Amino acid sequence: MSIFSGIWIPLITPFADGAVDHAALRALVRRYADADVAGIVALGTTGEPAALDAAEKDAVLATILEAAQDAPLPVVVGVSGNNTASMRERIQELNSLPIAGVLMAAPYYVRPSQAGIVSHFMALADASDKPVVLYDIPQRTGVRLELDTLLTLAGHPRIKAVKDCAGSLDTTLALIRDGRLQVLAGEDLQMFNTLCMGGSGAIAASAHVRTERFVALYRALAAGALDEARRIFHTLVPLIHALFAEPNPAPVKASLALQGLIRDELRLPMTRASGILAQRLAALERA
Description:
This is 4-hydroxy-tetrahydrodipicolinate synthase. Homotetramer; dimer of dimers. It is an enzyme of class 4 (lyase). Its EC number is 4.3.3.7. One of its GO terms (molecular function) is 4-hydroxy-tetrahydrodipicolinate synthase activity. The protein is of the alpha/beta class. It has a single domain, classed as Alpha-Beta Barrel (TIM Barrel). It contains twelve helices and ten strands. The strands form two sheets. Strands 1-4-5-6-7-8-9-10 form an eight-stranded parallel barrel, surrounded by six helices. Strands 2-3 form a two-stranded antiparallel ribbon. It is globular and about 50 Å long.
């Protein structure tokens, strides 16, 4: 089986007084390794990569890889952009690192045709020595990966999985039934549905909190314990709602700060969770 199964954490980037807090970052990786997550996604959307310069991205990735190696824990690296040539260069740099794969979204803002999307991803997959996870998130990129596009891309030998955030039950089910791509839920509330239909796992920002419960949900469904899995999922729904009540990753960072794991800091244009939401998260923490 491909490694792209189970619960993956799209890791936040902690800050302290405006700088990356590498000590907190190491501690988070070890915490999630102890919780038996399947892997870490570094520099995904939740990690605020748009707010990091190139040197900071390299340093964040180095810290995550160092901490994950001790676990050991596989690491997938997010690569974003809308310039195919520069993304190819970045992917070629990543080829020399001990990573499990790369996560790539469609080019944002420029809204290319589906033919352009296919050519873009094929060029990037050709450049990669590592497995590729496609990231279908039209609400951020402005363009979705149509089913025919995904099925075409599934023919590339290094494209192995998709992080599914498109919100289309038909597409999710069609990809699962096709069987060539492992389907990872990217919308946390769709995690239970996706897994029940045969999806392989989830890349879930909300799993930063109560991580063991998310892992238990996955394991219960893998074991066929539907009633137990449903019970676990129902207990997680209020937390998932709260963690996406305001723009990600502010609620996640607020929750982790309440636990004393990080400082509640983001970089503009992202801002901290509101006081009302922080109170709601604190109540959930006590529950």
